[in-house]
Amino acid sequence: MFYIIGGVATLLFILVIIVFKEKPKHPPSRAQSLSYALASPDASYLSSIVRLFKNLNFVLLVITYGLNAGAFYALSTLLNRMVIIHYPGEEVNAGRIGLTIVIAGMLGAVISGIWLDRSKTYKNQCHLNCLIQ
């Protein structure tokens, strides 16, 4: 079964390499045409990554996302052990706790999205200076 999936994936990869071009002959819109005209030839992937990491807001976003995701992954990985040590035989409840964490995260994301949309606080341009004061 793995050989079949690997073969299909390899065939699709080869077809993508052969069929798809870097960019179309004619730009799909005026905005894309202007983008092609204004693109600097010296813009490389590495320079765009360096420019991105010089943006303080992006760095703060990466750090906060990393802390949040790391804490979630650590907790969800060790949840069963933590529960079983203190409450032997409660594997089902450990699963329920994990389900509760996931559902609470999903609801929190939806609620915070609605709140940001209604209050328009995502447009606040507060930089690190606002956080320090």
Automatic annotation (TrEMBL):
SUPFAM superfamilies: MFS general substrate transporter. The keyword Transmembrane helix applies. It is a multi-pass membrane protein. GO terms for molecular function: heme binding; heme transmembrane transporter activity. One of its GO terms (cellular component) is plasma membrane. The chain crosses the membrane at residues 6-22, 56-75, 95-116. Keywords: Cell membrane, Membrane, Transmembrane, Transmembrane helix, Transport. One of its GO terms (biological process) is heme export. It is found in: Cell membrane. This is Feline leukemia virus subgroup C cellular receptor family member 2. It comes from Suricata suricatta.
